[in-house]
Protein 1
Amino acid sequence: MSTRQDSTVADVGTSKAAARIRAAAIEIFAAKGYGATSTRQIAASLDLSPGAVYPHYKTKESLLFAVSLEGHNAALVNLRAADEPTSLPTVRLTSAVTAYVKWHAHHHSQARVVQYELRSLSAEHFKTIAIIRRETTKVFTDIIRAGNETGEFQTIDTDAASLAITALGVDVSRWFPSSTYSDPEVLAERYVELALRMVGVAP
Amino acid sequence: MSTRQDSTVADVGTSKAAARIRAAAIEIFAAKGYGATSTRQIAASLDLSPGAVYPHYKTKESLLFAVSLEGHNAALVNLRAADEPTSLPTVRLTSAVTAYVKWHAHHHSQARVVQYELRSLSAEHFKTIAIIRRETTKVFTDIIRAGNETGEFQTIDTDAASLAITALGVDVSRWFPSSTYSDPEVLAERYVELALRMVGVAP
């Protein structure tokens, strides 16, 4: 085991066994809620003894933190990969909203745990996640500011537009899929149109 | 006790004692999650014996249903009261978005339980709640259609705009209040601007 307990990578757990435990935790947390789940149940779902989880995650909260850290990092990495800062702001916003909406649709169980169980994290762990969340919002804020500066966008309030665009993406994990929207690609197209409208780009 | 067990009003529980139990349930469900809460804990928070809940709610699920029914009905009644169908669509959308956003900000604990614990309802109870949810979305859809017809709105996709406007309102209960937005009135103003943009009204 790594001795770098201060490192976020070490906290997530890089072994295959730890990854299997996190994947099982996501399924059970998403289905039953974090509070209703025990590490014993997570172990049992993998045919492991309760003690087998302990070397990887000492507490249920540390497992939630690992899942949250991994999920938030994945969403942010995915979003940043979609954003090409040298492109036109309209292209950037299209690409970023598409990536963010599709990530929440494709990973809706993981996203639901990651977005809706934050209150169960320790204060210290919450702070770490809050930093990643601010970085995520900042991707959208930076694109909107760039568009305001070039005159491509006519945003009324940049903070509100960033919040709303992020909120639409997050909220996808609450309900996806529905009878009307079950194709992430189609949903992303509709939300891109609405996001462009929000920053004042005419269709 | 009422014998009209088929009635949704009877299901909610109209007595003062039942209302106190629902209020306590909302606080504990919102803080710990439905799955992690027992009716025993809810009773204890009111200095009641576990048996005192039973005459009002036979199961924890029936208590969640009562809370969900009451919350969804309250949000819908509040939204409908804000909508005056003889007004201009822009006025109607402004008023409806304001009411919906403010309701989710003012009642964020209740809204969180009502919006995020639906998976724990029985199939039959979920169906009842789904009807109220469709009625809620329909208020927005009707306003947007009216605006499209008069030419006041230039909506690209009415279903998507309804979904997004409803989603923004619901999502408020996930995070409200934040360091940037803690005044429901200010948040509602920003979201009205964005909703009008979404349906193609220039500021």
Note: The two ends of chain A are 54 Å apart (CA to CA).
Protein 2
Amino acid sequence: MATKRETSRPKTATTFKKTTPVSATAPVKIALLGFGTVGSSLARVIAVSKLPGVELTHIYNRNVERKRVSDAAKCVPASVVWTENFNDIVNSRAEIVVELMGGLDPAEGWLKKCFAAGKSVVTANKQLIAYRGVALSRLAAKHGVQLVHGAAVAGGVPVIPGILQGLGGDQITRISGIVNGTCNYILSHMETGAEYAAVLADAQGLGYAEASPSADVDGFDARAKLCILSRIALHAELDPDAVATQTISTVEAVDFAYAKELGCTIRQVSRAQLDAKSKLVHARVAPMLVPLTSPIAWSHGTQNMVVTSGRFGGDVVFSGHGAGGEPTAVAVVSDILAVAQKSVAVELPVRRREVTGEFMAPHYLRFVVNDKPGIVSGIAGALAKVGANIDSLLQRPGYPKHSLPFVITTEACLTSTIEKAVAAMAKMDCMLERPLCLQILTVDDKAE
Amino acid sequence: MATKRETSRPKTATTFKKTTPVSATAPVKIALLGFGTVGSSLARVIAVSKLPGVELTHIYNRNVERKRVSDAAKCVPASVVWTENFNDIVNSRAEIVVELMGGLDPAEGWLKKCFAAGKSVVTANKQLIAYRGVALSRLAAKHGVQLVHGAAVAGGVPVIPGILQGLGGDQITRISGIVNGTCNYILSHMETGAEYAAVLADAQGLGYAEASPSADVDGFDARAKLCILSRIALHAELDPDAVATQTISTVEAVDFAYAKELGCTIRQVSRAQLDAKSKLVHARVAPMLVPLTSPIAWSHGTQNMVVTSGRFGGDVVFSGHGAGGEPTAVAVVSDILAVAQKSVAVELPVRRREVTGEFMAPHYLRFVVNDKPGIVSGIAGALAKVGANIDSLLQRPGYPKHSLPFVITTEACLTSTIEKAVAAMAKMDCMLERPLCLQILTVDDKAE
């Protein structure tokens, strides 16, 4: 079903002026798949910006009539064709299709049809790019079209174009950062003493978290983004399912109090590191203790932050609004301009790499126990058995003896080593819940 | 004079593997103008990296024999032709010329000759790009070649490619940041109580500051970079000579003590802001009080930091190593890869804009007086006369009455207004030196 209204040409298409002799041609026609938060922001940005040579011609959405009469649609030029039939898009004269539906299916199949029809695709679909990005890029190249996905990681923060065009000359060995705004909103608000459940409910009320928050809080969203960043920065293609994740839902208010005593805060950190010798990529998405002196600790609310570490250029920090309609629309429009101007990104060889969750790092262990003699000795014994050294023991006053939270930090040891000790400690009678084990991010930490 | 040694092909040229069907051709030949810190780092990065399809073939330098036998030259392949005759470069088969000489002359004329000879140019020359960038880009386009200058601002921090490829979809209204590593080294070291002269001497000893430091400390280096950023981010072409600058050399240790009491530190800030109505660009390079909560306060040592503020995407922060051989070489090599792969940057229309140094901002005034009754009343009178309101008065204990530093901060007022008051106050008998007047950066400040 295609609903055509009027045919007046959108104002945005006539304001393009090139200052240099790049051929001034007819505006590039854009079709949009998905008119949700980002899609409607995109339409608004295109409408109010003086965008050189870009014309929105089609919008696809399920139940399109509901979208077409929404307030968000008011900025859409009357000339735009609204449809709930994907074939209208494939058969249209649109040269660039913007895919904002998310998910693997039907997005993957539809993108392939777009390529076959000679259309370039701009997408913000992190799952699709993480799982199928390399194959889809090859297919796009085969058809002589582009697949661009600057919006798939960190929304309005130009991490992907910045790395592709500005850090290709470095050898990036490590990336770490905060790429899930929902988790960052929750954890940075827990800093002030609030409990996880309360902050999650707030975030859901504000639209920052889904009703079913697992993709965010359990790390699957961040994992997809980390795999895309690994491909771009480390030139390492990873299997997203092989990347270790740890939920933030077991972090409690008390952990922020202890973290503060250690000069740290807690963030969902996504990190990947290419080992020069083994060629393994050490990767993990997990809540971690982050020193307050690290740029990663500076992100608050829904902000994103990515730090790349290069052999020649050292650390480079990118930060800003990683989510939300308009910041993401900025990334999408920037990609549209690139495709419209035939500005093809620099491309370096990517290799398939095996992935491990192992890191050599100090760890934070938080226990909640029914206090009685011998507990510390039992824990110390479990740590000694795996060869992990205790660095500090912290016990804040004011908690009841029958449900006492306290903390032990260890010197650097392997993830698998500390997990073995945690499994043993979890079986101790006194433990009221499974000990929480968090990696402590250090500035010069090394993967092992 | 051309000194050719051996003709063995450099190893770096044979490791290129494309994963997608981009045409695999012979390596792109690179000629280098200038074998100083960045030039030798560039040769090293090319040599040790597995750089796809890049071959260094020529190096030009004055007194080239001295360079050729230096330690830094050890990483240069034996096949490279060393010369002190620029014509050898023009007449070579190099397709990309990397200009690292700096300054307007002879660089400008030489670039034109390169373009005419069909050679693209990658340059880190901020003065040349600030003063002649638009005209040179047009000339390059006319000859069908590229002029790329990602290394001209913020060295290894991909601010220019990040903005060009990732923020073209936004309407950036403001840029602010730290783009001179020398000043940042000096000011961030003065935070700990050291005096300007001592830190400058240190910086000179370490090679961070020139023997004649004016270009850095008086703001001329940063001004050129600010003009380039204005062109890229605000699409506003400015006359660099029209941008107001203020030296950091009048900032003293006591100012950091007072700044700290105000929750601030002091940095050389470069800022430019496009007024939507007047279309004037408000621009200034000056030491400013920066709140410790601002990302601009986070830069230490020679780090650079640029914050862009966009209508849709909000604030985006880029930071990292803005100077030094290897970080700058990363930017140069990234640009070389872009030219070699014919990856042409997105281009948006740029307009010539008038520039003003006016900002509406609170100000910090530091006086050194021979203390006697009536001083504060005299100062307050001078401020009242121009209509500036006092916000706070700070006087730290422990200073001698005959040379007493104290501070007044004002509420937001125009730069020209406060400067009028300062000129009047400077004439007061009690003043031992001209009052220091610094803008206080606020998060939501507006240009007027």
Note: The longest strand of chain B covers residues 264-274.
